[in-house]
Specification:
Blueprint (H helix, E strand, L loop, with lengths): L1 E9 L7 H8 L3 E9 L3 E9 L2 H13 L3 E7 L2
Antiparallel strand pairs: 1-3, 1-4, 2-3
Length: 76
């Protein structure tokens, strides 16, 4: 499964390596399409390729840190 989604990161996470962590912790392949981070907030458009259960676990992990995930699209 391949999905594209928009992720918004709270400013309090600016020093956390969340993107690196999800690549190590979950069986996903991740591409950063576009991103911008500041001290107040950050956002990224990511493409994730993985089995659906692995994507769901990745999303749960990020949401537990307060990351908002929007505009989820399945792509081919």
């Amino acid at each position: 499964m391949k999905i594209k989604a928009e992720f918004t990161f709270p400013g309090k996470l600016k020093d956390e390596p969340l993107i690196c962590n999800i690549c190590k912790q979950f069986a996903i392949v991740l591409s950063i399409i576009e991103a911008s981070f500041s001290t107040d907030t950050g956002w990224a458009i990511l493409v994730i390729v993985a089995e659906e259960p692995e994507i769901n676990k990745t999303f749960q992990y990020l949401k537990a840190y307060g990351v908002e995930i929007e505009n989820i699209q399945k792509i081919s």
